[in-house]
Design a protein that fits this description.
single chain, 4 helices, alpha+beta
Length: 199
């Protein structure tokens, strides 16, 4: 909310209840700032209150399963090697649901349907951006699996997951995905050390 004092002109914007109204009020304030009749010899007090934003990187990962079988990728990239589930980055202006369907198609050849959101992972990057990974799962799919540049794609029995070299924290990710009580893995830095908790 903002007002101008000293010249005793006061403006009170309408109650902010939607992102659209917030944007409208911001534009109104900019117009006023550029209006010399209002700003001459005035002191501008500007406070958006609840208007808080931060840069966020959005990604996804999907557990595709068929009874006791789960679909995995033996990922070759050095930044996250080992057995993992398909997934990737959400593109600009892309729906979350459409994004995970696209990523699974690109990496495995399967067309999934009705993926269910089943968990979240978050941490801060070195640039202090928030990194969010959305966990999905589905047993509804069509097509034939094929490998991609991400790595070899194949089915394994869910009970054999420990027999493979897994990517970082995949076992815990799988636990959250299949749990009725857990929903999130949070990574945080404390005293120069990276720690994590599951909630």
């Amino acid at each position: 909310m903002w007002k101008i004092v000293d010249n005793f002109k006061i403006f009170k914007p309408k109650k902010i209840i939607t992102p659209q109204n917030r944007y409208k009020n911001i534009q109104q304030s900019k117009t006023l700032i550029n209006n010399e009749n209002y700003t001459k010899n005035a002191y501008l007090i500007y406070n958006l209150g609840m208007e808080k934003t931060e840069k966020c990187i959005l990604t996804n990962i999907c557990l595709v399963y068929d009874k006791d079988r789960i679909l995995v990728i033996d990922r070759k990239k050095k930044d996250w090697p080992g057995l993992t589930f398909p997934g990737g980055h959400v593109e600009k202006n892309e729906d979350f649901n459409k994004s995970v369907i696209r990523e699974v198609k690109e990496e495995t050849g399967l067309t999934i349907r009705k993926p269910i959101l089943c968990g979240i992972e978050e941490f801060k990057t070195k640039d202090e951006d928030r990194y969010l990974m959305l966990y999905y799962k589905t047993d509804k799919f069509s097509g034939k699996i094929r490998s991609s540049k991400e790595g070899e794609v194949f089915w394994i029995n869910k009970n054999d997951l420990d027999k493979y070299k897994l990517s970082l924290d995949l076992k815990r990710i799988y636990k959250v995905m299949t749990s009725d009580e857990l929903s999130e893995i949070i990574y945080y830095e404390k005293d120069g050390r990276w720690l994590s908790k599951t909630v």
